Amino acid sequence: MDIINNLNWRYATKKFDTTRKVSSTDLEILKEAVRLSASSFGLQPYKVINVESKEVREKLRAASYGQPQVTEASNLFVFCAYLDLTSEHIDNYIKLIAETRNIDPQELKGFSDSMKNTFSNNTSEQNHVWAAHQPYIALGNLLNTCAMMNIDACPMGGIDPDKYDEILGLSKQGLRAEMIATIGYRSEEDVTGHWAKVRKPVSELFETI
Amino acid sequence: MDIINNLNWRYATKKFDTTRKVSSTDLEILKEAVRLSASSFGLQPYKVINVESKEVREKLRAASYGQPQVTEASNLFVFCAYLDLTSEHIDNYIKLIAETRNIDPQELKGFSDSMKNTFSNNTSEQNHVWAAHQPYIALGNLLNTCAMMNIDACPMGGIDPDKYDEILGLSKQGLRAEMIATIGYRSEEDVTGHWAKVRKPVSELFETI
Q1: Radius of gyration of the CA atoms of chain B, in A
Q2: Could you give the ipTM of this predicted complex?
Q3: B136 vs B80: CA distance, rounded Å
Q4: Residue of chain B whose Cα is closest to the Cα of A30
Q5: Cα-Cα-Cα-Cα dihedral of A168, A173, A175, A176, to 10°?
Q6: Which CATH architecture fits A2-85+122-205?
Q7: Alpha-carbon gap: B107 to the closest alpha carbon of chain A (Å)
Q8: pLDDT tens digits, residue range A14-44?
Q9: What residues in B contact A28, CB-CB < 8 Å?
Q10: Which pTM was predicted?
Q11: Rounded distance between C-alpha atoms, residue A61 and residue B20, angstroms
Q12: Which of A42, B48, B87, B122 is deepest in the core (most CB within 10 A)?
């Protein structure tokens, strides 16, 4: 089964081949896969910063406990979730649905009201916790898509969100960095690439009732 | 591009064909895809309840605002995150690494200590928030894998975790239900399957710097 072979092939790449770049065609496919990811209500409450600037990546590496993949991978995606869910987010989303499906926004009033109710009854912190789950779905989708294309990736949670904010100006956009994905091609020198994959057995991870 | 075509093909299925079951071979592939998902530190701080029991699924439907997919889909996975991360989780993980890679657990002491430090410096609530991100990566991986296999799925966050706990006895295992995935085959009668997919344009979701 190709899917499982590809998922076994992937691993959290520690050392990338600095001479290899992901092609712009492949990069567009990865971005499209992220874009097509599911999210709660379909709201996509996040933004992805695609950091091409070498200078910025140097700064982000320092804000990521010096992890080398941040500068050595071909590409770096910073997944940022919205700090709160406001009426404006919902109004924009309703507008997007109405335009995409060519319907009257008034027909969506019930859906709009129910979302507004949900989020206005929560604290900002609760809305942020909710929002922060959603880019992880996109991350899972991205990692899977990379594997299917035999592109390497390393997702990393070990970042300093405050420093990321200083460098990328996130909070003024209402965003917070949640985690990053470094993307590229493994170096043959990465010894960790040859280590056996460690996963709980199905019998432990799953319980059937 | 097949991957993108498949991701466009998928949608949050509202009405499943109740006559069609996912084969046991395919179900094992889906479980394996979940199992192979990445997680922070590799800790896989979650468990998936695969609910086969019709009776339990009826109860869970009532605890999911009556959403019909809970009983009508071929399969139901309940993703549950651990409420805290304890030394025991880490010791078990270190044991698993040592066994899988045939190395002395003592060689992993530095890694073990750094994880224990991280989690013991957090509150339980912080550890739970961290743990709860991880099954979303697996969910993204599952949804992507389903799409590649032309199996339908609907991820659902609209569940009552307290009622899920009562029905499934989760908190006594140190778990909390985060979200569910219903899996099967779309019904031709599902009008929502013909609606245009609504997603932010790449230019809005991504920012390149």
Answers
A1: 19
A2: 0.96
A3: 10
A4: B4
A5: 30
A6: 3-Layer(aba) Sandwich (3.40)
A7: 15
A8: 999 999 999 999 999 999 999 999 999 999 9
A9: 202
A10: 0.97
A11: 50
A12: B48
